[in-house]
Structures are given as structure tokens and as C-alpha cells.
Specification:
716 residues; alpha/beta; seven-stranded mixed β-sheet; binds S-adenosylmethionine
Length: 716
């Protein structure tokens, strides 16, 4: 389906007319979209992950149906479905087949709400909960059938802007085996009586999950295809070409692990969301950016039911993203034709938003309104009241709030924590500032914030986890005027995700714990003894973080090598703190930590101190010695003979790795701590120096001269 065709589909009401007009502005990006489609098609792994379904324009605009609104003796889809709904079979069948509870209630709902549809979405388990929110917000009742499949009651056509929608299908039969389904479909008689020539028909099989007793795809295609062909003129066009499939009346069997559904394909957007594909081509990328699908889901949830109010030309409300980063939310809202503005405390982020969103706006042509982005601290009182100008009120705040390892509240670098469970309170200032600033709120956060929001007075709050291991969450507050909180049919709850996260950590910890016999390792006379001296003062947070990270890497090296007896000496002060807080050093179980200095822990005559500035080159690596590596990063050592001075002052023997002798082309000889440990271990395992360096010298340093080494060379 080309966008052009979509644009000329007849809008059912003024709202969709406005939306289509908005889309029309994007239509000018057609060649760009076509090329992205070509490119994506070559990526087999991605397309199989996303699931592919040939696109089709909406069934009302398919000649087979649109030309014959008054079908006599043929298939009037709404009438057929209404009959199924009224006789309570299809919804019940689906609920029974897929084990969804509440068949009676669902049936009543179906009667009340009209046509049920099966919605196919992309099969990404993590993003699925965001789709569930979108679908729940855009249709009045919906149920999750399995990953990638929803049953939506009511006007499922409302979800055609959903980020993950692959196809919308009017279900006609649902059975738990393909054979039973085939028997049902054989009873169906379909004619397109108003056509002089019968339209082309086509049959598709889409496997959401493999059925345990599946009918092979070939057998299924042959059996169902024969029936579907008999209803129309068969299919003469090439199936692979989506553009040629537009006018074809298409039927599909959806296979899942529990059962099969047969239905008419009533709508399928092109195989990948145009918006998502487009956004991936933005000029500037941001490590803390939001996934395009999630952003669109947030925007759709925020505007659901009052889309007209957000219309950029005629609406009275605007969406605001006060922490807009690279502009993903703004772009998502703009593609839907909504009035949207953003802000960020960081001037760089504001510039990035302008560049990224501006790139797409420019392609769409002059008629499109460029969303405004301003440099502003979201915590300022009334920061965004005027963001869209005085003629629109702030209808919704939609934002991926700053959190965790990448960006902090205040705009600076995040603090590196992967999990910030104990820090939900960090969000409090922003949540307080945003509460009364809009009617609706949709936030992405790194920890659950729904309870805090309820306590602060946000109304009709619900949340979902956007990751099976509880690393990010979407929280929705629909406000006072809503009839209730959103109840999406999620795949896993927030509590389940958090439990899984805790279980995963525990399991990992238990696993590593059970493997290591530290006493035996240190008692082994052949073990290679290495000590890391962390007594050095570090000159910056960055240096401390870097040393702690390298120590953590060494723990991994030690895990993989039973012959290594690794001791961290002078284990006190900032490095020990840093390691505990950010690298969970309490759980480092295959090394020893000693708060004494290295010369107190080991006999000084056994100590060989590794220093790039030493005169003597190391030859053999010997189990009777203890090799000490300085816990220092080269940022600090540049220009200073730090470790050799420390060794000499303490009367210890200092040696260097024989890089100069074996790798004269190597320009950079100040290695990371873990690299030195790996080299010593490799040499000890019996490799020659040549083999050792070939295997263990960092690859980058083998080939290129690092930038910093282009400066005056002070160290070896
Ligand atoms: C997670 S990022 C937003 C990502 C964005 N949605 C995207 O897709 O690029 C959070 C943003 O919040 C901004 N920020 C942090 N503190 C802020 C504050 N007090 N006021 C406004 N923006 C802030 C950061 O500069 C960062 O760009």
C-alpha cells in the first residue's frame, strides 16, 4: 500500500479527515519511504522478528467491497460479523480457543460494542505491553490473545495509528485445530454479487506462534487457498509485490500455539511502520533516546479519545514533552498531526530536537508546522504553560523522564547505576511540577512510579513494565475526568517483571557463588599470584570509575581462570567505595580483598611490581613471585612515572612487559589493568611472548596510534 492510496481512502468522519490531511503532508516523503522499505526487506532477521504481513488498504476501500456496499447474497462483512457476534459464537470461540477468561462478559461486550477484530502486532515481548496500552486506550475493550495478537472489540479501526499494528482481521471462525477450522470454512459461501467480474481473492497464513499439532504451511495453504480461490477469480498477480495486492480481497488464517483463527484482512499498514523507519534515519542519535514505537504508543495513549482536540490546526490542546532529548516524542506527535512542543534543560538536546524533527518537517513541505523546542528547566514553576503559545492549553505531558545511567534530572550525566530501585524519590520534584500542568500524563521511567503518583494526587493511574526484567516502565495518569484507569491486557505485570529482575540477580549471584572455591585456589602452589595495588589517589570521578570498572573486568578474568590467585590490596577508600556502589564488589567472590598495603600482605622480596616505566623487562612469569599491577589509569599517569616511583620508594623490584622487544611497532604501552592481568596469565599458561601479545594486546592498539599518543610521548 502506498501512502498515496491511504490518503485517498474515504474518511468516515471529520476527525479522520483531519488526520488524513495531516498524513498527506508526510506523503511527500514517498521516495524516501520506498527506499527504506527496500532496505529493510533485505534484513531477514529483523523482518522475522517484527513479523511480516503484506500491506493492504482498508477493506472499505477495496473495490471488492467498496463498490458493493449493498451486497445481496454476498459477504457483507459487518453484517456477517454482527451475526456471529449476536449468536455469540466468534467471541466465545476465540475466548475458548485462546483460553481468555470471561467469555460471557466478552460476548456481552461484543454485542454492545459491535464488530470484533483480531489485531496483529509486532512480536516483541518487551514492547508488547506498550502496544497493549495503546490498543486499550484507542478501543474500549481489548484482550491479549498471545504475543503479537489482540482481540479488540468496538471500533478497532481507531487503532490504525498504533505503532505496532501489522494487520486488522475480521474474525469469522476460531478453532483449536486447523482441521476443525477447515471444516468450518468449507461451510462458508462467499460471493461478490455486485461485480460483473468476480474480484481477485488471496489467502495468507500468518504464524504468530507454532501450533503443537500444526498443519504444515503447504497443506494449510493448499486447503484454505482452494476454498478462498473458489469465492473469487483467484489470484493472478505476483504475491510478493505489496503494491499489486491492494485491490485483492484477502483472507487469512492466523496460527498460534493454542489455535487458529480464520478471517478477512480488513486493513494492514505497510510492513514496517513508516514513522519508525523514518525516525531511525534522523540526523542525530542520542544514547538516552526513546524507541520510536514506545514514543508513538505514549502519544497515542495521551491523545486517545480526544484526537481532534490535539489537532495542530483546529484543536485547543497541545502535547508537551518537557524533557525532549533528541525529539522522539515530538516527532511521534507531529506524524499524527498533533500540536506538540518540547523543552530540555540541555541546549545540546534542544538543538538535537530541532535538527532531528526539522529534518522530517522539511521533507514534508511548507504546509507542515515545525514543533517548537525551547531550552528550559522543567522544574521551573509553570515552565510549559506558554510552550505552545497562549491559544492552546497543555492537554497532556508525555515524556521519557531523565533517569539512571545516561542522563540525570538536571541534565547532567547519569550516575552509571543500571538499576535505581531505591531512588524512585528522585522523580518526585518533576512529578510534583507536572501534576497540575496538564490533564493527562504519560511517563517513561526507570523505576515504578505509579504509587508515588497516586500519593501525589494524580488520578486514574496505571502502569506497565516495558521490559520483562523491570528496567523501564510506562505510567499513565488519565486524570480526574476519565471514567477509570487504563486496563491494558498486558503480557506480564509490573510485579512479575520486578520479581523476575530480582530472581535474575539472585540466580546469577548463586551461580557464580557455587562455582568458585577460593581457598583451594589460593592454596594451589602453581597458581599465578597477582595483586592489584589500589593505594593510588585518583584525580577525578572518571578515573575512579574507570579503575573500578577495570577491577570488575579482572574479576571476570579470574572467573574464567582457576589458576589465578588475585588479591586487591589497599582495599579501602574511594576505589573500594566506587566498586561497591557501582560494580557490586560485595559479590566479587573469586578474588581476595585486603585493606593492607601490598608490601604488608606479601613478602617484599617476592613482589615484582609491573610498571611501564621500569628499566628491566620481564622474562618468565613465575609462581613463586607476586606480580603487582598498579590500580591506576593512564589518564593520570600520563607524564608521571607514578608506579615505578612507588615501587622504588618501597624498595620493590620493578619490571615492564617486554612489549618494546617483541612488538616494537606498538606505540602505546600503558595498558589497562585487566590487559596486564590477561597478559601475565597467558604467559604463565605457557604461551610465548609473541603469542601472548598477539592474543592479548588490545586490537585497537595493534593497528592504530591512539589520539593521545600523537601528543608528546612522555611514558614509554
Ligand atoms: C531520557 S532523556 C529524554 C529522551 C527523549 N525522549 C528522546 O527520545 O531523545 C531525558 C532528557 O531530560 C533532560 N532533562 C534532565 N533534567 C531536566 C530538567 N530539569 N528540565 C528539562 N529537561 C531535563 C535531559 O537533558 C535529557 O535530554
Amino acid at each position: 500500500m502506498t501512502l498515496h492510496h491511504h490518503l485517498h481512502s474515504s474518511p468516515r468522519d471529520a476527525r479522520s479527515a483531519v488526520m488524513l490531511a495531516r498524513l498527506a503532508r508526510c506523503a511527500r516523503i514517498e521516495p524516501h519511504v520506498a527506499s527504506s522499505r527496500r532496505r529493510v526487506a533485505t534484513k531477514a532477521s529483523k523482518s522475522s522478528k517484527m513479523g511480516r504481513f503484506p500491506s493492504t488498504k482498508s477493506v472499505e476501500n477495496t473495490p471488492a467491497f467498496a463498490a458493493a456496499p449493498d451486497i445481496h447474497g454476498g459477504l457483507d462483512i459487518d453484517a456477517v460479523v454482527a451475526r456471529w457476534g449476536a449468536s455469540a459464537t466468534i467471541v466465545d470461540d476465540i475466548c475458548a480457543t485462546f483460553g481468555v477468561g470471561g467469555g460471557g462478559a466478552a460476548r456481552a461486550k461484543a454485542r454492545e460494542l459491535g464488530t470484533p477484530r483480531v489485531l496483529l502486532t509486532h512480536k516483541n515481548e518487551n514492547v508488547y505491553n506498550a502496544y497493549a496500552c495503546e490498543i486499550a486506550a484507542m478501543t474500549r475493550a481489548s484482550r491479549s490473545l498471545c504475543v503479537g495478537m489482540f482481540l479488540a472489540m468496538g471500533d478497532a479501526r481507531a487503532v490504525r495509528h498504533a505503532a505496532g499494528l501489522r494487520a486488522e482481521i475480521v474474525p469469522l471462525f476460531a478453532r483449536d485445530t486447523a482441521e476443525a477450522l477447515l471444516a468450518d470454512v468449507e461451510t462458508l459461501r462467499v460471493t461478490f454479487s455486485s461485480h460483473v467480474n468476480a474480484p481477485e481473492t488471496a489467502f495468507f497464513h500468518d504464524c504468530v506462534a507454532r501450533h503443537p499439532h500444526r498443519m504444515s504451511s503447504d497443506a494449510l495453504g493448499a486447503a484454505f487457498g482452494r476454498i478462498v480461490d473458489s469465492w473469487g477469480a483467484g489470484l493472478s498477480r505476483a504475491r510478493g509485490d505489496e503494491r499489486q495486492m491492494e485491490d485483492v480481497a484477502r483472507f487469512a488464517v492466523i496460527e498460534s500455539a493454542r489455535g487458529y483463527v480464520f478471517g478477512l484482512v480488513s486493513y494492514a499498514p505497510s510492513s514496517l511502520s513508516l514513522r519508525a523507519v523514518d525516525w531511525a534515519r534522523k540526523p542525530q542519535h542520542f544514547s538516552a533516546g526513546t524507541r520510536a514505537e514506545i514514543a508513538l504508543a505514549c502519544v497515542n495513549v495521551a491523545a486517545a479519545g480526544c484526537e481532534a482536540a490535539f489537532d495542530v490546526d483546529s484543536g485547543s490542546a497541545a502535547l508537551i514533552d518537557p524533557c525532549c532529548g533528541s525529539g522522539t516524542m515530538l516527532h511521534a506527535a507531529w506524524t499524527r498531526g498533533f500540536a506538540v512542543a518540547g523543552g530540555d534543560i540541555s541546549p545540546g538536546a534542544v538543538a538535537m530536537t530541532k535538527t532531528n524533527v526539522g529534518y522530517f518537517v522539511a521533507r514534508a513541505g511548507q504546509s507542515s508546522t515545525m514543533p517548537r523546542a525551547v531550552e528550559r528547566d522543567a522544574l521551573e514553576p509553570n515552565a510549559f504553560q506558554d510552550a505552545y503559545g497562549s491559544h492552546k492549553r497543555v492537554g497532556a505531558i508525555v515524556s521519557n523522564l531523565p533517569f539512571g545511567r545516561r542522563v540525570a534530572i538536571g541534565g547532567g550525566d547519569g550516575d552509571g547505576r543500571a538499576s535505581v530501585g531505591a531512588f524512585a524519590s528522585e522523580y518526585a520534584p518533576m512529578l510534583t511540577a507536572f501534576r497540575d500542568a496538564a490533564d493527562r500524563h504519560v511517563f517513561i521511567s526507570g523505576v515504578p512510579i505509579a504509587d508515588d503518583m497516586r500519593a501525589m494526587g494524580y488520578k486514574n493511574v496505571s502502569d506497565v513494565s516495558l521490559c520483562r526484567f523491570g528496567r523501564s516502565f510506562m505510567t499513565i495518569a488519565l486524570g480526574e475526568s476519565a471514567s477509570g484507569a487504563l486496563e491494558p491486557a498486558t503480557l506480564f505485570s509490573v510485579d512479575e517483571a520486578l520479581e523476575r529482575a530480582a530472581g535474575k540477580k539472585e540466580k546469577k549471584w548463586q551461580k557464580s557463588k557455587s562455582k568458585v572455591d577460593i581457598a583451594a585456589r589460593f592454596a594451589n602452589p602453581n597458581a599465578l599470584r597477582i595483586a592489584i595495588d589500589v593505594s593510588y589517589e585518583q584525580d577525578s570521578t572518571r578515573a575512579r570509575r574507570s579503575v573500578a570498572k577495570q577491577l570488575c573486568e579482572c574479576v571476570g578474568v579470574s572467573h574464567r581462570n582457576d589458576n589465578l590467585a588475585l588479591t586487591y590490596c589497599a582495599w579501602r577508600g574511594p576505589i573500594a567505595e566506587e566498586s561497591r556502589e557501582y560494580f557490586f564488589s560485595d559479590r566479587w567472590d573469586c578474588i581476595k580483598k585486603d585493606d593492607r598495603d601490598v608490601e604488608e600482605v606479601f613478602a617484599p622480596e617476592d613482589i615484582v611490581y609491573m610498571s611501564p616505566d621500569a628499566d628491566e623487562a620481564l622474562d618468565e612469569v613465575d609462581a613463586s613471585k607476586v606480580y603487582v599491577v598498579g590500580g591506576i589509569v593512564d589518564l593520570a599517569t600520563r607524564g608521571m612515572r607514578t608506579s615505578v616511583t612507588r615501587a622504588t620508594n618501597a624498595g620493590l623490584r620493578a619490571v615492564r612487559l617486554p612489549i618494546r622487544e617483541f612488538k616494537p611497532e606498538q606505540t602505546h604501552t600503558v595498558l589497562n589493568i585487566d590487559a596486564v592481568v590477561k597478559i601475565l596469565a597467558a604467559r604463565r599458561s605457557g604461551l610465548s611472548w609473541d603469542e601472548t601479545f598477539e592474543r592479548e594486546l588490545p586490537k585497537r592498539q595493534k593497528k592504530e596510534r591512539p589520539k593521545r599518543e600523537k601528543r608528546e610521548r612522555v611514558v614509554e
